[in-house]
């Protein structure tokens, strides 16, 4: 089963985390993901939520809003993909992700397109 | 008074939950129904004991209340004559048990064997045993098995329904079926222990380890002639004896060969040794006895002052022949490095090099990192340690490995 692993961070808490150690652990984690085989891909980190722009179109009118998109402390901060037999292994990978200590990892199964 | 009554109810919940549940569910084979009835009995106890005092026999009291509620529920469901006869029989049996509580037979072992029945999905046997025998909640169990609580709850409900639908008998199986089923019971208990052992620093996990040991003692006391049950209990006690030594005062991970033997619990080790001797009286036969023997060889340095790696390697050879497990091969390699050197150990790992199961198995990469570093193959060691760090879920282990990798660069 393929899962998209969505990393949520509290930007403030993240800024307080020991940076060098954190990114060193992330480098190792990404390498483990890249080596884990087909269906896995290392994480991509997103810019802080204050740099996001939100676009909505309705009735021929375009609204452009500056982020953050939602009024919550935890924001989408990055993501990675895994391909494992089931949720137990997905939880294991979420546990390994260094961000699980500074935020939350949301596990979302990917809906596979139906064959034929 | 309130406080004393609450504590009495809690003690009864802790000590008698599995025994009462096993008794209530034995005839109906309806574990979920028996749990509901027992939960209501505990709720009544918490309400009435503080006012009316703790009964002289809390178990009998709880059983009587649970039985009433259970027979009501069954009456609502089935109204046929056969059903009435069934209820009559059950009521009489429970009535007798309620008035002479010493007669409540210990059916926990039978319930464990029901949970370990081939009809029950293999991965659910350990969680089901923990819930029905120990009364752990789905949330506790889910945390220990890394499964979301709702999923765990659903699976537990399904497994209990399966016991009822398939008419799984609550009985210790006959001799010829015992081996396979006892294996499943032992594996379930040991899986629970392993969860409680690896997830250190988490108090819920440590409690799980204690509960697993308690179940192990129960199996040994009820099946005293089964050597593998003794072997498994010994194995858990050896591991438990070293719990304090696995972390230094700062909480950092300490590998076995560097542990301070002063911190090992000698009393637990002696208990493990005695159990292993009893188990081995007819010669070692099963996986748990051999694994316990390996632990015995490891702790020999408590007595002799030096490790006994030759015996460890030889015992792993026996285990490997028995299980063909890549994990046994991996552990054997670590011991082999001590007797024949890192290159020989690395060569022995060739057999599992392309094994898919090893690709994201953290201990494999940690061992490879350690062995290649010993052999002076710096680049390989760096790569393996990096993978091991990335695959770690345990903070202390991760820090230890980062230290190893730093030492590699500096050395």
UniProtKB/TrEMBL annotation, chain A:
Pfam families: YCII. Residues 1-112 form the YCII-related domain. This is YciI family protein. Belongs to the YciI family. Gene3D superfamilies: Dimeric alpha+beta barrel.
UniProtKB/TrEMBL annotation, chain B:
Residues 181-279 form the DUF6596 domain. One of its GO terms (molecular function) is DNA-binding transcription factor activity. GO terms for biological process: DNA-templated transcription initiation. InterPro entries: DUF6596, RNA_pol_sigma70_r2, RNA_pol_sigma_r2, RNA_pol_sigma_r3/r4-like. It comes from the Bacteria. PANTHER family: BLL6612 PROTEIN, BLL6612 PROTEIN-RELATED. This is RNA polymerase subunit sigma-70.
């Amino acid at each position: 089963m393929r899962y998209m692993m969505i990393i949520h961070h509290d930007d403030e808490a993240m800024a307080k985390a020991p940076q060098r150690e954190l990114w060193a652990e992330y480098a190792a984690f990404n390498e483990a993901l890249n080596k884990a085989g087909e269906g896995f891909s290392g994480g991509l980190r997103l810019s802080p939520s204050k740099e996001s722009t939100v676009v909505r179109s309705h009735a021929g009118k375009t609204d452009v809003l500056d982020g953050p998109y939602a009024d919550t402390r935890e924001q989408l901060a990055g993501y990675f993909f895994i391909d494992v037999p089931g949720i137990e292994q997905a939880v294991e990978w979420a546990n390994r992700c260094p961000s699980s200590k500074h935020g939350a990892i949301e596990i979302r199964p990917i809906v596979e397109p139906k064959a034929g | 008074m309130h406080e004393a009554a609450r504590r009495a109810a809690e003690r009864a919940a802790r000590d008698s939950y599995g025994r009462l549940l096993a008794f209530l569910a034995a005839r109906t084979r309806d574990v979920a129904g028996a749990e509901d009835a027992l939960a209501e009995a505990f709720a009544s106890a918490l309400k009435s004991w503080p006012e009316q005092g703790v009964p002289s026999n809390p178990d009998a009291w709880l059983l009587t209340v649970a039985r009433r509620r259970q027979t009501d529920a069954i009456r609502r469901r089935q109204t046929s004559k056969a059903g009435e006869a069934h209820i009559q029989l059950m009521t009489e049996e429970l009535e007798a048990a309620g008035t002479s509580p010493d007669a409540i037979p210990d059916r926990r072992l039978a319930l464990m064997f029901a949970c370990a029945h081939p009809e029950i999905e293999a991965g659910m046997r350990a969680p089901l045993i923990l819930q029905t025998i120990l009364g752990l909640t789905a949330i506790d169990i889910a945390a220990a098995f890394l499964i979301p609580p709702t999923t765990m709850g659903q699976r537990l409900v399904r497994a209990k329904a399966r016991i009822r639908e398939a008419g799984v008998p609550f009985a210790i199986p006959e001799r010829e079926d015992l081996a396979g089923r006892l294996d499943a019971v032992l594996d379930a208990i040991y899986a629970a222990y392993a969860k409680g052992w690896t997830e250190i620093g988490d108090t819920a996990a440590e409690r799980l380890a204690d509960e697993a040991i308690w179940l192990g003692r129960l199996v040994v006391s009820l099946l005293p002639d089964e050597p593998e049950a003794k072997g498994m209990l010994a194995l858990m006690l050896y591991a438990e004896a070293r719990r304090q030594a696995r972390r230094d005062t700062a909480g950092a991970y300490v590998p076995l060969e560097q542990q301070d033997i002063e911190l090992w619990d000698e009393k637990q080790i002696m208990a493990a040794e005695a159990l292993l001797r009893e188990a081995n009286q007819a010669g070692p036969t099963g996986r748990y006895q051999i694994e316990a023997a390996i632990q015995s060889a490891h702790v020999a340095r408590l007595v002799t002052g030096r490790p006994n790696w030759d015996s460890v390697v030889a015992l792993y050879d026996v285990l490997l022949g028995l299980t063909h497990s890549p994990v046994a091969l991996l552990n054997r390699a670590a011991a082999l490095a001590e007797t024949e050197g890192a290159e020989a150990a690395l060569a022995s790992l060739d057999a599992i090099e392309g094994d898919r199961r090893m690709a994201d198995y953290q201990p494999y990469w940690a061992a490879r990192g350690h062995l290649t570093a010993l052999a002076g193959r710096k680049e390989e060691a760096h790569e393996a340690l990096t993978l091991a760090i990335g695959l770690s879920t345990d903070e202390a282990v991760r820090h230890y490995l980062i230290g190893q990798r730093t030492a590699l660069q500096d050395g």
